[in-house]
Amino acid sequence: MEKVLKFGELKNAFSLKDYFAMTKFKVVLVMLFTVLVGFLLGSDTNINLWLMTCTLLGVAGCAMSGAVLNHLIDRFRDQKMQRTKRRPVASGKVSTESAFAFSMLLLTAGAGLLFWQVNALTAWLSIASMFAYGVIYSLWLKPATPQNITVGGLAGAMPPLLGHAAIAGHVAPEALLWVLIIFTWTPPHFWALAIYKRDDYAKADVPMMPVTHGIEFTAFQAWLYCLLLCVVSVMPVLIGSQGLIYLVMATYINAKFTWLTYRMWCDPSNTRARKTFRYSIVYIMWLFAALLLDHYVQLIAFS
Hints:
Number of strands: 0
Distance between the termini: 67 Å
Low-confidence stretches: 1-13
CATH class of the largest domain: Mainly Alpha
Shape: flat
Radius of gyration: 20 Å
Family: Belongs to the UbiA prenyltransferase family. Protoheme IX farnesyltransferase subfamily.
Function: Converts heme B (protoheme IX) to heme O by substitution of the vinyl group on carbon 2 of heme B porphyrin ring with a hydroxyethyl farnesyl side group.
GO molecular function, one term: protoheme IX farnesyltransferase activity
Subcellular location: Cell membrane
Strand content: under 5%
Oligomer: single chain
Membrane topology: Multi-pass membrane protein
Number of domains: 2
């Protein structure tokens, strides 16, 4: 009897692990950091901790719902890719019915919390972002065009706007700039990954740019987007919402990211692509940290 109980506990643990894996929690954590920054950028030194917590939990629920839906829709493509073939739905560990029910449960809980404790604007924008990623990108754009991540990147660019809308109650111009920053950052970030995972995408018949246009062309496009990102990321300074601290930090990390994408273009090897991809995550975290640091230094200095 003792052995049976231990086996049952182990089986349940694996099941919980599979459901957790479907939420793409590591990706959601990075996204939640930008939600938090957006919220704090709309706040003064008197932070509403309850509203902030409800915003993070609600947006997380909607985002994880989209991630689970992505697992469900991508299950056949995932089976063909080395990187994703062990995903819970693709490997059969979680049924399609269970995955869909889990996705809807997360969406209902997340959106319900936002409607109840935050505001309707944040709730509807979160639902729209989930639908854009989980359905429009995964079901339509991803298998249809090499520009899938360019167009679909808008869904992933929304988090700082969601955070700011939660505290402000409206869509502010500076929040739209933060969306534009992430939207412009997404192609070089994702194309670097696609370069060193191009064989996987080719096996799954996903028309990622390295598959359809080659790695040299993709790396060149990534570098061009980085140049555009250098311009877009200093716009908060030009409109007066950010100051010198942000400008200095943004200039440094922009220079490094642009250099890495340029080197990747000159030598589009898997090693350089992987290095560029990893730095792109560091880049977006530091950029939003710079927004936050500059904001509070200004608040304290001029209070």
